[in-house]
Amino acid sequence: MLTLDHPFSAVPDDYTFTSVITSCAHQKSIVHGEIIHGMVKKNGYLMNLYVANSLINMYAVFARVDDAHKVFNEMSELDVFSWTSLLGAYAKGGKMDLASQLFEEMPVRNDVSWAVMISGSVGCGRYAKALAYFCKLGKSEPKVKLNEAIIVCALSACAHLGALDQGSWIHGNIDKNGILETSNVRTALINMYAKCGRIDCANRVFDNISRPDVHNFTSLISGLSIHGLGRHAIRMFNRMLVDKIKPNEVTVLGVLNGCSHSGLVKQGLSIFYNMESSWGILPKIEHYGCFVDLLGRAGYLAKAFGVVKSMPIDPDIVVWRALLSACRVHRRTYLGERIINHIGQLDSQSRRGAEILLSNLYASLGKWDNVSLVRQVMSKQKNQSDIGCSWIEVNGVVHEFRVADQLHPQIIEIRNKLK
């Protein structure tokens, strides 16, 4: 359009710029977006509400918080979309403290604003905070209707926290609020019930789906696997194939995990070695980790070590630790020491925790001198372990505590209630 000569030339307007900027966001093309931003300035459309909103949203997609904020500050008119787009930029950039401040300053909020805060909190691992926002939404702004994104993110928070009461309450209110049980909602429900220990409820949700898709199957297969029901996971996987539903990489990871925890070596071998030829899924580091864990748990340590050494991608600490853990279970000291030599080539942050496994291996064999040597090496290293955290649900309310808070008066009060 820009290259057309007079008399066929056309001048871009606010509709043109809005559409093109939105396309840049969808196509993940920040360079073109910046060029269009310059053209917007040159043509005097930066004060146009819709053009400016599309620019904020584009920069939010790329987590370019400063650029999004700059456009926001230059606007002469703001609406709820302007505020929400900037909120999304902070959430995408992981700056949830700043997002919370902005959220409190918003003159008007809509369902998308709340969804951004809840999903952003989940994305940053602030699951209790996500549920707090969800509860606050119901109490302070009853006029804002719950949408699919809010429900799915709230259920995800419940799944991570093990907040069964909250999750069940949300499930019960889905029909009440007129929310359509889409594939995403059903998948989130299955995942929530499975991770909260109610695989029976997860099965019931699945059985009520007339035509389950790959996401529904994957969620249930993963749930069955974490409950140690590997044979059930295999059966569900086979049913999926019979229904001509192609598995994705997460499905394969889930069923491999089920094989690992149930000792189904033959089935796991078949799935792993056929995943690329049968379903076009190239094994990733997570699949190799599961496969190594499967072989290690079953006692095939030499084969597992061979798989690790022949991997087309560099093994990470998770793969090595899975093998080292199997050495401890099967009391294979020599192989454990060889693995530690390989782990020693990684940086200190990556090999964190491996020395503890080796120490436990020596301890299980009664080699206390070796335990002492490993502990001495560990004591000289800077402790960079993550701070432990626990969540406790009491009467539908989730309480979050750090390890250092174990003698906190609130914990003592909760313990007394549980007694």
Description:
- It is a single chain.
- It is globular, with a radius of gyration of 26 Å.
- It has helices at residues 14-26, 30-42, 49-61, 65-74, 80-92, 96-105, 111-123, 127-140, 148-161, 164-176, 183-195, 199-207, 214-226, 230-242, 249-262, 265-279, 285-297, 301-309, 317-329, 333-343, 354-364, 368-380, 409-418, and strands at 389-394, 397-402.
- The mean pLDDT is 85.
- Helices cover 68% and strands 3% of the residues.
- Helix 3 runs antiparallel to helix 4, helix 9 (148-161) runs antiparallel to helix 10 and helix 18 (301-309) packs antiparallel against helix 19.
- It is mainly alpha-helical.
- A hairpin with a 2-residue loop joins strand 1 (389-394) and strand 2 (397-402).
- The chain folds into 4 domains: 1-102, no CATH class; 109-210; 300-385; 387-419, no CATH class.
Write a concise keyword list for the protein shown above:
single chain; 419 residues; mainly alpha; 4 domains; two-stranded antiparallel ribbon; 23 helices; 3% strand; globular; PPR_rpt; repeat; Pentatricopeptide repeat-containing protein; E_motif; TPR-like_helical_dom_sf
> Strands of the biggest beta sheet: in what spatial order?
1-2
Q: Helicity level, as a percent range?
A: 55-70%
How many structural units, i.e. domains? 4
Q: What coarse outline follows from CA principal-axis ratios?
A: globular
Mean pLDDT: 85
The quaternary state of the protein chains shown equals: single chain
> How many separate helices?
23
Sheet/helix structural class: mainly alpha
Instruction: Give the termini distance in whole angstroms.
Output: 74 Å
Main sheet makeup: 2 strands, antiparallel
Low-confidence runs: none
Radius of gyration: 26 Å
**What proportion strand?**
under 5%
* Element-by-element helix/strand order: HHHHHHHHHHHHHHHHHHHHHHEEH
Number of strands: 2
